[in-house]
Write a structure and sequence with these properties.
Layout (H helix, E strand, L loop, with lengths): L1 E5 L8 E5 L8 E11 L1 H7 L16 E8 L11 E4 L2 E3 L5 H4 L10 E2 L11 E5 L4 E2 L6 H4 L5 H11 L7 E5 L5 H11 L2 E6 L5 H6 L4 E4 L3 H5 L5 E6 L7 H6 L1 E9 L12 H6 L2 E4 L5 H14 L5 E5 L3 H10 L5 E5 L1
Helix pairs in contact: 4-5
């Protein structure tokens, strides 16, 4: 029996919940949860903002723990080994995307909290493909958010072959953005932080930003025309995207990892004239996630976290909803 915290409907509090997971699949593992990060996606799923939540819903997809048991065909992981798991609970492993190494693009992939019980629990199950060993040097109490927020901002650096000589802008210094600043800086890029909060400048620079721009200052934004190879939007807000497209160099890219609430629109001519792109991406594949974990360990990168006991999960969710979290919340099981 797995003991968890679940919600019975949209905007309902999380309450103790037990369920019988059934037989363990031959390629699956069961993780004894030590820590689980809270992502904004957990709140979105709890509130059914995306119209795909199924209740009772057990959130949690930034999981760190140890292998409690494993299926008969799982040979690369050991009992008791410390591992992590993220958004995906499983993928088909047979479609062209899975076979080609882009498992994160599998059309039939199962999300950890989409019709599947997640990590706000003492144990959680997942396909072993998506369960990765935690490298030495990563603090397990802080590593959970790397399995969602971390890989979300690291993946574009790999997918678009961003060079160390690139000039990269990051919009938003929050749960995603503060990790994006760290990764892009350690990657070797010249990094600029965009924020509506000028008081965040010292912190942004501590995360690796070489430059800071108050995004409420039109004159400052105008001066940046033709400056960036990539601008990464890590916010869930609407902006005047034409300003940021204008700030791109030829062949530059405005890339979304934060979900803007309304459609993104622009005139096409600026894209054609400068051969510019607008794009987005989900989390990375297991291989890219493993690279991200090794990179984080090598450069001693970690999210800034606040810790709550699992029993105080509703307090933690209120903290996230208030917008006051700095910058990721982690539950200790």
């Amino acid at each position: 029996m797995i003991r968890a915290y679940a919600s019975t409907g949209p905007k309902q509090p999380l309450k103790p919940f037990e369920y019988e997971p059934g037989p363990l699949g031959p390629y699956d593992v069961e993780i004894k949860t030590e820590y689980c990060g809270i992502c904004h996606s957990d709140m979105s799923m709890l509130n059914n903002e995306w119209g795909m939540s199924a209740y009772p819903l057990v959130p949690g997809h930034e999981i760190v723990g140890t292998i409690a048991t494993k299926g008969e065909h799982v040979h690369h992981l050991k009992l008791g080994q410390r591992v992590g798991a993220g958004w995906y609970a499983s993928t088909c492993l047979t479609c062209e995307w899975c076979v080609g190494g882009d498992q994160n693009l599998c059309p039939t992939g199962v999300g950890m909290i989409v019709g599947h019980h997640g990590g706000f629990a003492d144990r959680v199950r997942a396909q072993s493909t998506w369960v990765l060993p935690l490298p030495e040097g990563l603090d397990p109490a802080k590593a959970g958010p790397l399995f969602c927020g971390g890989i979300t901002v690291f993946n574009p650096l790999v997918q678009f072959d961003i060079k160390p000589t690139a000039r990269v802008g990051v919009i938003g210094i929050g749960g995603l953005g503060h990790m994006a600043l760290q990764f892009a800086s350690a990657w070797g890029c010249d990094v600029t932080a965009f924020s509506t909060s000028p008081d965040k400048e010292p912190e942004a620079r501590s995360f690796g930003a070489a430059h800071f721009v108050n995004s409420r200052d039109p004159a400052a934004l105008k001066k940046l025309a033709g400056s960036f190879d990539m601008i990464l939007s890590a916010i869930a807000s609407d902006l005047d995207w034409s300003v940021y497209l204008n700030a791109l160099r030829p062949k530059g890219r405005l890339h979304f990892v934060g979900v803007a609430p309304t459609p993104v629109s622009t005139h096409v001519f600026p894209l054609i004239g400068g051969q510019k792109s607008i794009s987005g991406s989900p989390l990375g594949s297991p291989t890219t996630t493993a690279r991200m974990l090794d990179f984080a360990a090598r450069h001693k990168l970690a999210p800034l976290t606040e810790e709550f006991p699992l029993a105080k999960v509703n307090d933690a969710m209120e903290r996230l909803a208030s917008g006051k979290a700095r910058y990721r919340i982690v539950l200790k099981a």
